[in-house]
Amino acid sequence: MRKNYNFAFLDEGSKREIRRAILKGVAIPGYQVPFASREMPIGRGWGTGGLQLTLSCIGPDDVLKVIDQGSDASVNAVSIRGLVHETTGVDTTTATQDATLIQSRHRIPERPLTRDQLLVLQVPTPEPLRTYEARETVTKRLHAEAEYTGAYLELFEQIVRYGTTTTGADHPVMVEGRYVMAPSPIPRYDNAKLNMAENLTLLGAGREKKIYAVPPYTHVESLAFDDYPFVTEEFEGASCHVCGATGVYLTQTVDPVTGEQVWQCSDTDFCAQHAAEQESEA
Amino acid sequence: MGYVAVTGGEQAIATSLDLIERKRVAGGLALDVDTILSCLPELVQQVESEGSLWAPEVAATAVKQACGSVEEAVFLMRAYRSTLERLYTSRVIDTDEMRVDRRISAAFKDIEGGQILGATRDYSHRLIEFELADETQASVRDRARELAERLADTAVPATPDALARVPRVLTYLRSIDMVRDWPVDDTEPVDITKTPLSFPAPRSVILQALSRGLTQAVIAIGYAAIRGFGLSHPTVGELRRGSVAVEIDAPGAVADAPAEDAYYLGSIPVTEVESLIVADEVDEQGEHRSALDVGYGLVVGTDESKAIAMSVLDHSLRADDVRFPTQDQEFVLYHIDGVEATGFISHLKLPHYVTFQSKLDSALRSVAEKGGEADA
């Protein structure tokens, strides 16, 4: 009854199938490729899509970094990194520049990725038109016909109602002028990092059974109107209370010592490296 | 044991796992797998049914590891299942050949082969037997002996092998051409664990998704379909429970290899339901007539409510009509899987610091733009 697991958990047949879906996704940027998502040892909705991409692509020489909310130490990142390490034995790192494969939930690292790095994003809801249309058969047709009125209509309604678009993370993007794509719940601030990036980004939705991709040097444009341009989150006047950085994605937190509201880099590796640089310069 | 996203996650998880393991062993008692198989067979079968893997010992171990949480045990089974190579497709299982230990019809009183009530709690009174709290191994054995003696004089077959193959109740209705039947289709079914859902879903996909669906969800949505949010009100034409043999052809066998050459892998317990639902039929001249549709349910194990609800949903999903969510394939099939439902619900516990910051930013921007006034 006892059974040892294969390298990278999945059996080779499953990996091959997932790789075929990845290749199709790379060939059609922004198009959601259906795949037979496997049940994984972590919860559906906890990054199983990203995990399957990682496990299908990883080789013994890869160096893995896993982040959640930008942090290597976040519980789910720890759990996923542990699982991949346990089933592959690959080296892991927190330093963005040392990783060959980065699995992430909700963030793209601050440091620009290179052509030798693969970014895997975990996706909860791959369908950017889902709030507008509940049925998959219909959204599939809308994509086929590049009928994206619904996506713009939603933004339009937000502007009429609230005076501004109110998308949070997961602001829809147009990929290479063809497919509207959900960039996964990365903040709007991160959308620009997908545009003309040097690296390949793979997006995996385990529960919804979809894989899609943004190949290197692909145009990725956030949906907006000429008179209501796309806006990212604002951190005017704020800087990281740890490393002093500005112009990065910050989240609010409470200083455990003073009890004050402070801002902090969400990318903990960037923050640590930046703080170290500041120190050596001082 | 704070687990702020910044540091400490690793240590927090390790400690958390120790704590949950301590809860499992804190009572100082061990429940062995044989005891679970012997005393909690229906729990094990539910885990196998939703886990869509027939493996009693693995399922019992999962139940033990999960401290009795069905959700967790099913999750363990599914994750284990997805690492197994799928090497064979079994021969078509003909449920006419089922070794039946219970079969009833709510449609006809006298059926060929007779109604076999079998072991059921249907007519029991749901009173807690407080004496069971003091049951011992010896008293269990005494009771087993006593029951064996009492049942020796009844018509109950002594061994599973002696259980009769009984003819189907619906054979009569089929013979007088009263049911709108599905043609027999023995093409290899789509395996929903190897092929993503697409719509409209072929029937083999619908049946698989329902059969391995979250038991309580299948029952609840099936209930909605017969109560008012659907048009199916069935009569149970036949409910049969028993075991069926699973066989595979020898590797390299020709397409129509005789059954005698097949390998017998074992038998699995199943519950099968054929429901009859009155339907409106329109003939070529546009004349309406009343006809009977058949809804089909087959589940691993003995959960009869699940099997009946499945037969209701098998029928309602054929209606390709989204007036009612119970007839909407996307509504039912996307949401009936236990591992998917519990996975996504539970993911809400994960940190959402970055996305929430983004939401907050949008809300603040709106307040700034409109001075806090939102148009209705």
From TrEMBL, chain A:
Q: Name one GO molecular function term.
A: lyase activity
Recorded hits in Pfam families, A to Z, give: PhnJ
The biological processes this protein is annotated with in GO are: organic phosphonate catabolic process
Q: List, alphabetically, the InterPro entries matched.
A: PhnJ
For this entry, the protein name equals Alpha-D-ribose 1-methylphosphonate 5-phosphate C-P-lyase PhnJ
Protein species of origin: Collinsella ihumii
